[in-house]
Amino acid sequence: MSATSASTSLAPSLSLVAFAAVGAHVARLAAPRDSPYVFASASNGAYIAAALLCPMDDGALALTLIGAASLAHHAEPDRRQAHTLDIALGWVLVMHLAFAPLLAGARVFARRVSWWVRMLGRIAAYAIWGAALAVLFSHYVELKDGTTFLGNGQILLYVIVGPIAALALGLERIFILTKGNPPDSSQTPVLTPYLEAAIETLVVLLVINAAVVAQGTLLGRQLFDRQEDMDAYDIFHGQWHISIAFVAIICYRRVYEVNQYSKGQLKTCVCHAQWPELAMLAALAFHSVLVIVLKETAVSAGASEATLGVSATVLGAFSAYAWWQSIQNIPPAPRAFEALRRSSIVDAPALFPPTPLISVGTARAGRLLVGRGIDLNYL
Q: Which residues lie closer than 8 Å to 138 by C-beta, 6 or more apart?
């Protein structure tokens, strides 16, 4: 198999999130200039876009819930219940982003132990995660208002848990998903696979930092919900949503691949090292740097909006081109049939039995969809 594999490319997911970001900018341009929180509301589409191509069901659910809660809050800011859900589900998402790679890594190391040991370990892991969430929710007011003995609990949560997630993911990306170049690789890589994995990890860390800074009330220049700060808060809080969506879809994509590796179903190195994929990562890093610099240097809201809109468009263009290139690297004839031969298809004969009205091929395609064996990167 070629070193460049569309099934492990980040381009499809990043493209969809980038297009959602561009759509939020278009919505902001189309709305009356005195409309509050248009961008902060529309940017929640990035969560939904990430959920659409998320290969993990629990990750897609977490992204959908936070997107819906955040949209409800920013569309009607006076609804306190929606604000509570927005904050609490954000904590759930960031905790899950740390929990998922840790559990995936544990599965890799536990491949050779008895099944009951793995089951007990899985139960223990979920019990610990549930207990951590219970502690967070039981101290919701103290964490939200920063009245804990550690200061602002939300800052600690995002600044500590976020890098833990990125570092755990980075270690798995480098030491589990990366190998030397396959001998049958048809293309000369721009970078070695290990250097590419390290760069991807650094980009994720940068995007996490941009997200926390852009939130508006956690780190850096404070953008409180005042009239004079409303436009800036709208733009940069929306960037918080978009950046978290980028981090989440990268995390869930790689965690899914680690899980596939632990099951023996991932046979290829996660290596792209061609310039379209690397240019996409560079564009994402540049966009994150712009978010930090524009917010912290107090550039006007209008100039920041225009600059970040252009940057999101460029990122979307690079991502779409990388996606197109990854599709071109799959031999065209087998593409439509390779998924039908995947071992991950879950049979659903009760739902899709072959009958005189349903051909065998149609029945198998139905089982493929129900079993989530289809790889959207083939489409």
A: none
